[in-house]
Amino acid sequence: MDRVYIVVRKDLPVGLQMAQACHAARAWGGTPPHDENLVVLHAENEDHLRGILERLHLADVSARCFQEPDLGYQLTAIATDSWAKKYLRNLPLAR
Q: Which of 16, 35, 38, 55 has its Cα between 20 and 30 A from that of 78?
């Protein structure tokens, strides 16, 4: 079963986290197949999220990022696919 991973910043208010996760999912694009799961994970802050994004790019793993205009274009969330699993396995589920 394929997964789309969304990594959102834990240091944002919960409502904003949800909105940013949705923006990242939209940035990923497409219509997911019915057998695809969405997994939302937490990064501690923007620096942590940038580090994750950099590791994914160095590993040639596709990822899309979302930068929130209302927060001065800070990086708030990223979306990636099942190829990223080994780079994300230590991140906690968003709660």
A: 35
Residues recorded for the chain: 95
Tokens of 41: 């994970």
Within 8 A by CB and 6+ apart from 91, the residues are 7, 41, 42, 43, 52
Residue 7, C-beta contacts closer than 8 angstroms, at least 6 positions apart = 24, 40, 41, 42, 43, 49, 52, 77, 78, 79, 80, 88, 91
Average pLDDT value over all residues in the chain: 93
Q: How many domains does the chain have?
A: 1
Q: How many CB atoms are closer than 10 A to CB 10? A: 18
Question: Residue 61 domain-assigned?
Answer: yes
pTM: 0.91
